[in-house]
Write a structure and sequence with these properties.
Keywords: Glycosyltransferase, Transferase. Belongs to the glycosyltransferase 2 family. This is Glycosyltransferase 2-like domain-containing protein. GO terms for molecular function: glycosyltransferase activity. InterPro entries: Glyco_trans_2-like, Glycosyltransf_2, Nucleotide-diphossugar_trans. This protein has 15 helices and nine strands. The chain is α/β, with parallel strands linked by helices. The protein has two domains: 206 residues, Spore Coat Polysaccharide Biosynthesis Protein SpsA, Chain A (Alpha-Beta Complex); 118 residues, no CATH class. Strands 1, 2, 3, 4, 5, 6, 7, 8 and 9 form a nine-stranded mixed β-sheet that branches. Strand 6 and strand 7 form a beta hairpin. Helix 1 packs parallel to helix 2 and helix 14 packs antiparallel against helix 15. The longest helix is centred in the C-terminal third of the chain and has 19 residues.
């Protein structure tokens, strides 16, 4: 049997409401030489039956059923099962426009020094309507993407479900790492950037569905915490030292980071970066992120350091977002922990 040119990597967990739209958009691609490997990751809403129905009708669709193991385990399983030289990511609630695969594979075959290419996206709501301020512009060139990855402000320069990656590179870096749950894509971009160039096409070839229940809304603190550690691990690699997170199954708690990295100051740096990252996430700022910010303020007061700017503006933001208790707690912490002169 001839191997396909593209393996579509689709992990599904309870996406029944949108799954048929996502699958139809893949099967309608103008570039049809692909296999779609879908992992049903313990769905309980009928997603498994939908996948099986498509597999029965189209031989390009292959379904693997498993108990719920999470996105990282599912994607690594698909990588191991893939038969194609290119792997295209896709989520079960998004819609790929018909020319997506054709344009991405043409780019990669014309640019052998690039190992990954994403696309611009257009945001849609849960009901499929265009989202207000829906056009998201990601950097186009390898240089701009590398610059964005070097920033301490989390904001991925690539949309994970839009990317197509050379499989050999994905295997060479070890796929997705279990410890970086909720920011597994960001950690992957950092590792790939050390081996290859990456780009985004200027065309909007993916309709990306935004939802209040998606990971980027529910796990803001974990995302910023993991991303800060991933950036520090990258610095270790670039400076010729071992990556301390290699082999981790989970990320260590904040108080263990100095020991994990073998030097003092790491925990304080991560705390400052996470504080900076959650300033525009009111739920996190007023909830699980508040103790971390208070600890950051105490650190700064005791060391006489300048604290993360923008915290008083965050108080006002909490008031505007109807979180008066969080605003009062943050304001009190700011007043109690003013830097020593």
């Amino acid at each position: 049997m001839t191997s396909p040119r593209i393996t579509v990597a689709l992990s599904v967990h309870d996406n029944a409401a949108y799954l048929a739209l996502a699958l139809d958009s893949i099967l309608a691609q103008t570039f049809g030489d692909f296999e779609l490997v879908a992992v049903d990751d313990g769905s309980t809403d009928g997603s498994a039956a939908i996948l099986d129905g498509y597999a029965a009708r189209d031989s390009r669709v292959r379904v693997i059923h498993q108990s719920n193991r999470g996105l990282i385990a599912s994607l690594n399983l698909i990588i191991a099962e893939a038969r194609a030289p290119y792997i295209a990511r896709m989520d079960g609630d998004d819609i790929a426009l018909p020319e997506r695969f054709a344009q991405q594979i043409a780019f990669l075959e014309a640019q052998p020094d690039h190992g990954l290419v994403g696309t611009q996206i257009r945001g849609i709501t849960e009901t499929g309507e265009p989202r207000r301020n829906h056009a998201v512009d990601h950097p186009l060139s390898a240089e701009a993407i590398a610059e964005a990855l070097g920033s301490s402000v989390l904001g991925s320069p690539l949309c994970h479900p839009s990317v197509m990656i050379r499989r050999d590179l994905l295997e060479a870096v070890g796929g997705y790492r279990a410890a970086y749950r909720h920011c597994e894509d960001y950690d992957l971009w950092l590792r790939l950037a050390e081996r290859t160039r990456m780009a985004n096409l200027p065309e909007r070839l993916l309709l990306y569905r935004y939802s209040d229940t998606q990971v980027s809304h529910r796990h803001v603190l974990a995302q910023h915490y993991g991303a800060a550690i991933a950036r520090l691990a990258r610095i270790e690699r670039l400076q010729g030292r071992p990556d301390p997170s290699d082999g981790w199954r989970t990320l260590p708690p904040l108080e263990a980071l100095d020991h994990a990295f073998g030097r003092p100051g790491i925990a304080r740096q991560v705390r400052a970066e996470v504080t900076r990252g959650i300033l525009f996430a009111p739920d996190t700022l007023a909830g699980e992120g508040l103790p971390l910010i208070v600890a950051h303020l105490k650190d700064g007061r005791e060391a006489g350091e300048r604290r993360v700017p923008g915290l008083w503006r965050a108080v006002a933001r909490l008031v505007r977002n109807h979180r008066p208790r969080g605003a009062w707690q943050l304001a009190r912490a700011l007043l109690q922990n003013r830097p020593r002169r």
